[in-house]
């Protein structure tokens, strides 16, 4: 899949943290659209996608002048009080075009200069390792959350065929940990995994967050139902994993390996 790219200067970059992100003062999306195009992505049903007129995952708008705009907004926001930023809520800040365009990197450069009180970086891309030098400069004011929904590569290919391999994500968590950067593995949405999953994650990170469609899609699972995700489970004869209680099995596995206070469920695991 080759997405169509466009270049657009946004009016603003920092948006108010609302709903699931109400623990944050702001959300920050370096791009509009996302080339990873995950089958279960709830953004597919949001106005940003539905008004576009093209399928989610086939287009990406690169935000131009982003660093200049962020610097001004950040300076202004910091005058009003603490600033906590979630990057990103409706795109992946390290999707493939970031390798060339470096919008996220320039935003991080701004944030090592005008430092927010806390920055949460949500990605599923090993490209984040490129920015270890900048992330280190944020010390404990940053956490990199790497999405690892499963440890099964066949399951990844089934649900999110355009995303980076699981092994590369796990290796990236290891590199980030070795570089002293706070991390978590984010098992969200939980997908079918093996008994060894918790051990695999514990070897590379100290913290894990679990979420599913029913708690985490902002609509009690309705958005996900509308996407027809259930049919993927049915085709693979994995229906038992598409259930509001299915996360409990993964949660128990995590709790047998991670200390209890390092295992988070749903929104709590995304908070500053
Ligand atoms: S990486 Fe995130 S924003 Fe991008 S398609 Fe997947 S779930 Fe949606």
Tell me about this structure:
Keywords: Iron, Iron-sulfur, Metal-binding. InterPro entries: Elp3/MiaA/NifB-like_rSAM, MJ0683-like, rSAM, rSAM_sf. This is DNA repair photolyase. It comes from Paenibacillus shirakamiensis. By secondary structure, the protein is of the alpha/beta class. It has one domain: TIM Barrel (Alpha-Beta Barrel). It is 33% helix and 17% strand. The chain contains twelve helices and eleven strands. It has an eight-stranded mixed beta sheet. α2 runs parallel beside α4. It is globular and about 50 Å long. 44% of the residues are buried. The mean pLDDT is 96. The structure holds iron/sulfur cluster. Iron/sulfur cluster (SF4) binds next to loops.
Summary of the model, kept short:
The protein is of the alpha/beta class and about 270 residues long. Helix content is about 35%, strand content about 15%. It binds iron/sulfur cluster.
List keywords for this structure.
272 residues, alpha/beta, TIM Barrel, 3-stranded mixed beta sheet, 33% helix, binds iron/sulfur cluster, DNA repair photolyase, rSAM_sf, MJ0683-like, iron-sulfur, metal-binding
């Amino acid at each position: 899949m080759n997405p169509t790219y466009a270049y657009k200067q946004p009016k603003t970059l920092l948006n108010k943290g609302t709903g699931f992100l109400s623990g944050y003062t702001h959300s920050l999306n370096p791009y509009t659209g996302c080339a990873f195009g995950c089958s279960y992505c709830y953004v597919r049903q949001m106005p940003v996608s539905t008004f576009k007129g093209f399928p989610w995952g086939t287009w990406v708008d690169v935000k131009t002048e982003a660093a200049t705009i962020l610097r001004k907004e950040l300076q202004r926001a910091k005058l009003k009080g603490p600033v906590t930023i979630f990057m990103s809520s409706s795109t992946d800040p390290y999707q493939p075009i970031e390798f060339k365009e470096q919008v996220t990197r320039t935003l991080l450069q701004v944030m090592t200069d005008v430092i927010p009180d806390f920055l949460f970086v949500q990605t599923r891309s090993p490209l984040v390792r490129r920015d270890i030098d900048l992330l280190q400069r944020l010390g404990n004011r940053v956490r990199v959350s790497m999405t690892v929904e499963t440890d099964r590569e066949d399951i990844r290919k089934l649900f999110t065929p355009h995303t980076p391999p699981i092994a590369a994500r796990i290796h990236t968590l290891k590199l980030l940990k070795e570089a002293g950067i706070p991390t978590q593995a984010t098992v969200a949405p939980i997908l079918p995994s093996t008994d060894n999953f918790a051990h695999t994650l514990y070897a590379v990170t100290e913290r894990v967050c679990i979420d599913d469609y029913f708690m985490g899609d902002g609509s009690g699972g309705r958005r996900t139902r509308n996407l027809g995700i259930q049919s993927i489970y049915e085709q693979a004869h994995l229906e038992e994993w598409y259930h509001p209680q299915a996360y409990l099995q993964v949660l128990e596995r995590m709790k047998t390996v991670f200390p209890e206070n390092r295992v988070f469920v749903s929104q709590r695991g995304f908070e500053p």
